[in-house]
Design a protein that fits this description.
Length: 482
């Protein structure tokens, strides 16, 4: 099988754009920064806070238009905080000491162990062997594998690019389904279905994708309510499971594969498992760490970052990973730089009062509305705003806290506001082929046109919005969260 693609915020196409395109993108970033600086500073806001807003907005814009990779843009933003005396150098680098940032980095290391040992691939093949005799069963097998792995692996690039996508592509090609005339035989269905399943899985777990811990931190900063690993999955479990059942069925209905019966897939899985042989000692150790970390994350005994670091320590001590594996985890270190800077900037911006002032101004739109009507309108705006974002992190960092403040001001129950926005931050990525890291992996396979991808994403969004508001809100009522 070919070497899997592993997209991260730092190796997307920004490294290969033309000089003209790069200059145009820099022009957009500078236009945003200087546009804010030229606006008179509102009463009650310091000039220092206003400069922070300009740097933050320029950094987010740069992460979207990408004159440089995302990690490089954030590093420039962190540097600007000190150069323009918005913060001291100690304060501007403070985000890299945040446990949430180290949690994400450590979880990337765990994902490397899952790929290196072959455990993730073995799990996928076992699912395919069990339920892969039909094309819809193949989709469920791949989605089930990712749902399990996401319990401890927050890197969608690692899960999809390193484990799921190569298997999906091999299965499609086993049935002579390739981009072009034969795409609809099987490949187009698998790529769209597994990609949409990935997005539901991102919302399902606190570790579903790397910015979920940051979303939880933003919620705590605004409300003081901590969304733990256990609380996140408990609240997401029922709507996520319903979505993971219905989304593949919906796509099977509106975009069916030409091949419905796939007995060769089970044979393929059996052959590949035979090549793998019996589970190695390293796989058993990796499985033990997987279960151990997931169990401790559910328990209240240790901070999440401490648990992740314990898991890494065990993998190093047992030789499953070596220090070279950690150093070479390019995606993890890129995300470390990216998130560490964004966490600090978002936290500092929240303390300036600017986001609160923005939220108060926005709240006038829904003034006098019933809380549920205000919630519905604002959630839809928030969800479909993802058309303008190339990552969940950029979307959530820019919009989560202000929208949460507005929804709370309208009178919505705190947990309803916090959870619905958190889950919608992920689910909104369904609408485009660039909404989250995994989407370009599946779209880039070439089986589906952009128009078809966007149309399927739009239709799926209607379903997931309905499930997570109707089933989700009812489930949260049962859990007495409102």
């Amino acid at each position: 099988m070919e070497e899997p693609t592993r997209l991260t915020p730092d190796n997307e196409p920004a490294d290969h754009i033309s000089t003209r395109s790069r200059l145009l993108r820099w022009g957009i970033v500078l236009f945003v920064a200087f546009g804010i600086l030229l606006i008179p500073v509102p009463a009650g806001i310091t000039s220092q806070s206003w400069r922070l807003l300009a740097i933050f907005a320029a950094t987010i814009t740069g992460s979207m238009v990408r004159p440089l990779p995302g990690g490089a843009m954030v590093l420039l933003g962190v540097t600007a905080l000190s150069v323009f005396r918005v913060m001291t150098i100690e304060d501007s680098l403070g985000g890299y000491a945040d446990p949430v940032v180290w949690l994400v980095l450590a979880a990337f290391f765990i994902s490397r162990g899952m790929i290196k040992t072959g455990l993730g691939r073995r799990i996928a093949l076992l699912f395919i062997k069990a339920i892969g005799r039909y094309s819809i069963g193949l989709a469920y097998a791949l989605i089930s594998t990712e749902a399990l792995l996401a319990a401890v692996i927050p890197s969608t690039g690692a899960r999809s690019g390193g484990i799921i996508y190569p298997i999906a592509k091999s299965l499609a090609e086993a049935y002579e389904s390739r981009p072009g005339a034969s795409a609809r035989r099987l490949g187009a269905f698998l790529m769209t279905t597994v990609s949409q399943g990935n997005i539901v899985i991102c919302a399902m777990w606190l570790t579903g994708q790397a910015s979920n811990p940051i979303i939880a931190k933003l919620a705590k900063d605004v409300t003081g309510i901590e969304i733990t690993y256990a609380r996140w999955i408990t609240a997401a479990l029922l709507p996520a499971l319903v979505s993971l059942v219905l989304v593949p069925l919906l796509i099977y209905r509106i975009f069916p594969p030409e091949i419905k019966h796939t007995p060769a897939a089970s044979e393929f899985a059996s052959t590949e498992l035979a090549k793998l042989g019996k589970p190695k000692w390293s796989e058993w150790l990796m499985l033990l760490v997987f279960v151990f970390v997931a169990a401790l994350w559910i328990s209240p005994w240790f901070h999440y970052a401490t648990v992740a670091m314990i898991g890494i320590a065990i993998l190093l001590l047992t030789g499953v990973l070596n220090f070279g594996d950690l150093i070479s985890e390019r995606g993890g270190w890129s995300v470390f730089i990216w998130y560490g800077g964004l966490v600090r900037m978002a936290e500092a911006l929240g303390k300036t009062g600017i986001t609160k002032r923005f939220a108060e101004a926005a709240a006038t739109i829904t003034l006098g509305w019933k809380w549920w009507l205000a919630l519905a309108v604002l959630l839809l705006i928030y969800f479909y705003a993802h058309y303008g974002f190339a990552s969940i992190t950029a979307h959530a960092t820019a919009m989560y806290a202000p929208f949460l403040i507005v929804i709370l001001a309208a009178g919505a129950p705190p947990y309803v506001a916090i959870l619905s926005l958190a889950y919608f931050s992920n689910l909104g990525a369904a609408v485009t082929h660039y909404g989250t890291t995994a989407s370009p992996i599946y779209f880039g396979a070439g089986y589906v046109s952009q128009r078809t991808w966007w149309l399927i994403g739009l239709i799926v969004s209607f379903l997931t919005i309905a499930v997570w508001t109707i089933v989700g809100f009812a489930w949260w009522k049962v859990l007495r969260l409102w």
